[in-house]
Amino acid sequence: MFEINNIIFLKIYQFSIEFLIIRVEYQQVPLNVYHEKNCNMPAGIDDLAIYVPKLYLDYKDFAQARGIDPQKLEHGIGIKKMALVDTNQDAACMASNACLELMKKNNLHPDDIGRLYVATESSIDESKALNSFVVGMLEQVYGDSSFEHAGGIECKFACVSGSYAIYDNTNWIRAEENNDKAAIVVVTDIAKYDVGSAGEYTQGAGAVALLIKEEPRLLALDPKVTSTIIKNEYDFYRPFGKETPLVNGLYSNLLYLIQVRKAFDSYKEKAMRTGLIHLKDGESITDYIDLFTVHLPYRRMGEKALAYLLRHEWRTLPRWQHVIKEIGFDEPVPNDSRGTIESTLADKEFMKADEQFRKAFMQTSFYNEVYEQKMASSLEASNIIGNLYTASMYMGFRSLLECEFKKHHDIEGCRVGFGSYGSGSSAMVFSGVIQQSYKEIVKNMNLEEEIGFRKRLSMDEYQILRENERNLNESYARAKNEFILVKIGGSTADKAGFREYCYCN
Ligand code: COA
User: Fold this and answer.
1) Is the peptide bond before 425 cis (omega within 30 degrees of 0)?
2) What is the pTM of this model?
3) What residues have CB less than 8 Å from 442, skipping those under 6 apart?
4) Whose CA is nearest to atom 8 of ligand 1?
5) I need a surface site. Which of 282, 336, 437, 488 has the fewest CB within 10 A?
6) Whose alpha carbon is nearest atom 20 of ligand 1?
7) Is 301 in the pocket of ligand 1 (CB under 6 A)?
8) Does the CB atom of residue 297 touch ligand 1 within 6 A?
């Protein structure tokens, strides 16, 4: 067998009607030069741009209308403003707006882009990929067929698919299949839950477009450590034709924690095996991750995910005795030894004791030190936007960059650990290192300014919007310098389902 590193020469020696002799020669050349380049070529996130719709619901208005203590929303969930899409917006508009912003701020031409992937669970067609709509919109600005050369697909796996898209595109670059072109991965979603449900206060909408390149200015992804976990589950799903998901909230919370922890275990094993991280006695791998950003269906979930991970990593280390001493009581163990999610949830006594322990752990100086230093910055954006499904972790990453910069923390060389989760269910854990040139990009970030003016909807207006009682052209906000949806369905039967978009100056 030929080795992958060998160049294969095909030589045609003789050709006639009867004979075709092809001699295959291979040469043992030092192609580990290529191999080294592949492995060591830094690739990852070069820049990112966001789009957040111009309408929001204030938590106090929402709490009053639903008879909920606003403190629960502010502190128990971690939401102050929920972003909502207008009548003339969908996931494709948001993706295109984020993408256009990314192209403009980096002076990119469509020729610079070899792939355009869109990850979403707010798809608008069962067959036609969402990135084709985005290409159509971008070509209104850059010219007909300007993206013709670029490939790409729509990716779906609840909130985790954007991470798979970034992983695949980074490997496309590492494999040098990219012909010096960059990839754009856009994560875009509308989190919409049933009225009156426990999910309703975790709504939100928005998109993040990420430029994936070699020698990235922001974050080089660590090779060979990305780890995934997958299992057929029904924690959160949205059958065809249904606008809102069916959710088993508590189950999805626990599943998220368990799946991310399992992916993290696998990441840890790979990080140690590849020599990325060397652990000494008494150390935890969490000591070597300088900043965390995780999937954020709501802010509080990020805090809980960190607590779960630290408990898992620390409970066998000497430091755990000091943690227990500060808490004042022991960590409970399940009565049921089966250890399944169902048996754990059914073990009410354990669940109650575990909740108490978790809350006490989150009050300790040990937890708070890690939380303040490594996670708090990534949670700020979630507070004023809400759940973005696929985009939530990447908005968290963006939040982390901006807030750390504003705190005057120099994070060059810091390792960021990502915990991505998608219901249904799959988790992906990976990491990357902040690059030397990151400040050039981060210094210009200003979330409030980039979101721009937003209209605070009354609960009546929200209700009307929810019921789809207004037409496309009856938007609440006035669109400016952005793509909007102007028509669904053409005048003839063969154009049923056509969506028309335009760019508003
Ligand atoms: N003041 C302050 N905090 C309060 C409060 C009050 N008056 N009342 C309740 N809280 C706290 C609770 O103690 C709890 O805190 P904890 O998480 O630290 O335990 C928090 O608010 C949430 O309240 P709780 O009653 O436990 O949950 P809920 O019924 O509001 O449901 C979800 C929360 C997340 C399960 C629900 O919003 C949901 O189903 N969301 C959609 C699915 C989802 O996002 N899943 C996540 C994984 S992908």
Assistant:
1) yes
2) 0.92
3) 218, 401, 402, 405
4) 72
5) 282
6) 76
7) yes
8) yes
